[in-house]
Each structure stands twice: as C-alpha cells, then as structure tokens.
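Thread title: Can someone regenerate the structure for this chain?

I was given the following input by a collaborator and told the matching structure tokens would be attached. They weren't. Posting the sequence so someone can regenerate them.
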Amino acid sequence: MASDNRIASLRPATRLVHGGTLRSQFAETSEALFLTQGYVYPSMEAAEARFNGEDPGFIYSRFSNPTVAMFEERMALLEGVEAARATATGMAAVTAAIMGQVKAGDHVVGAKALFGSCRYVIEDLLPRFGVETTLVDGEDLDQWRSAMRPNTKTLFLESPTNPTLSLVDIAAVAEIAHAGGATLVVDNVFATPMLQSPLQLGADCVVYSVTKHVDGQGRCLGGVILASKAFIEAHVHNLLRQTGPAMSPFTAWVMLKGLETLDLRVTAQNAAAAIVADFLAEQGVIERVIYPFRADHPQHALAKRQMRGGGTLVAFELANKAKAFQAANALRIIAISNNLGDSKSLVTHPATTTHQRLPAEVRAGLGIGEGMLRLSVGLEDVEDLKDDLSQAFESLGR
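Best answer:
Regenerated them for you:
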C-alpha cells in the first residue's frame, strides 16, 4: 500500500480503498475491528501523558477508537479536507456541526427546504437555547443577504434538497456567509462526495448521513462532520467528546467496507437514475419529473456548474395522494421505505413520511405535493426498474 503521505495525491477511487488504513502487528489485509471500550497503559505516568495530551494515543472509545479513526481519515481524504469526526447518526452530525458554533444570543440562517429533522433543529431546537433563527428560500440569494445580522454565526443548507431536488448556489451563499463573518455548513447527503464537493465551493463544513450512500446497503446508522482542523477543534471536537454521540467501532468497520465500493455504486446509481428520470418523463400519468441533470430542471445550469452528476434520486408527481399510493403499492421490485442511497431501489411519499411533521401549507410552499413520490435508484438492472414502474402505472387505469 502507498504510504499515508501519498494517499492524498491519489485519485478518489484509490483513496476509498486504501485511505487511513492502520494495521496491527498481525498485518491484516482487511481493516481490523477494535471492539473495545478502553485502553491499557504501561504505567500511571503513561496514562497521565495520554490524558494531558503529551501522548496522542487512545483513551476511551467515546473519544476515539482505531477503527473509527480509520473511517474518519478515509472520509477526510475523500473529501480533501484536514479533519473529520464520526457520529452515531447523520442527525448527530448535523446537530453538532451547528450547535458547536453557537450560544444564546447568536443567530443562525437556514434554508427552508430541509429534511424534516434538520428543519426541527433550526426551527425548534436552537430557539429553546436562546439562539435566534431565520429560514429563507434557499434559491433566493437576496433572502440570504437580507437575513444576515451582526450576530449571525452560521448558515445551513442542503443541496440538492430533500425531496424536491431544488438547488442552492453553494459558492454564492458561502460568499454571503463569509462577508458577514459567518460560516457555511452544507448537508451533502443527496449529492454524495462523489458528485459534489461543497468545501471546494467555499463551504466551511460538510456533513453526511453515512447511513445513506456510504453504507448504502441498509445495515448501519452513522454520520460524519468534515472541515478544517481549526474548525473541528474549535467547534466540534470537545462537544462530541463531552456529549457522547460516538460512532461504534463496528459501524465504522461497516462504513469502511462500504467506502471501498462507493465510487462504483454511486456511478452506477447515478447513470440509472438519469435513465429512469427520462423514462418517467415519457409516462402519460406523470405530471412532473424532477432530476437536476435534465434540461427541464429549472436550475439545470447551476446543477451542471456545481455537481458532477445528477444524483441517485428522482422525484416525480402523480395527480394526487391516492394515485401516488396506488402506484407505489403496485410496485414489485422497488420497495417502500423512507431510506435512500441503498443498493435496493426505494420509494417514499414525503408528505406522509419524511416531511409529515410540517404543516400542509409549509409543504405546499416547498413544492412537496400530495402526489409526489421520491425514488432512490438502486443497483438493479435499469430495465427491470422501468418494467416495474410501467406495470405500476398500468394499475392506475384499473
């Protein structure tokens, strides 16, 4: 294997296989799984040195663990950033990345179009602790500018958004944030690190639910925060250490194995999603298809500018909720699930699942209609997916 100082110069697919690998005295090929809570010291003096930072070794697996450290290093290498911290879930990553930067009296600006739990953090949780928040139309740069205040500490967005696949101009919002002395945190889960690089576009921090494409096989929950070493040390490290949303070593090991095939899986899923989107657009029962790399997407030019592919998800609308339910219930291969980024194709009805906690008028304002379905395209043969969708749509005429 190439030495650690060479890994960063290698291409992404190679980093996904070799990055961050630590080998024990047994020189194993696969990454070792260190299922341990604590660590033994050769002397009391050694323990003292470990705790006061003179010795950089491991102390306790709530703080750090060799298997988790490998996952963090590999993610940092993939993202092209100095530091990463793994968490138990994607929402733990989102919450820590934001809350680690603020205190009572500060201000946070978020895009309105967010996953339901992310919007809860901005809209409901932060104000409980005296943090003021403002939600804006993420597509409207003037709204971002108008929302900035002297006490604004950070801006938060996801792009493409869940589930409407609208886009936010990451580079432009980063400029607005920095001009006001604030940071920008981007949830990049829909695009994946293979198709979009928010840090290269000016973001200060990127978060992932690695439950999605990184695992990508429906096994484990996890999250990760990626940023500069200075950002992680100032805003994230101590918060995670003291509050304890730690990723388990077993989960980190599963994620490491998932990373080895991430490039292959996302490349295949991205290609299939583009085909499925075009197929859906040809179906008479479909009222609208949303896919960032289709020419009819209202932000197609922005998608081409800041993404390397349209992604693995397609949103489409039927006439109403009854039609959407009937079509989804008729599917034989595509499963009904609120997860995404899986090797299995999955469909959900956002208005009654991922975004059900939002009032109907808020959902309508975000473009989440009662007839909308969100399809996460998996690794099945795309012709079988098209056949499955065809027979489901045929059922609508019965």
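The chain has a mean pLDDT of 96.
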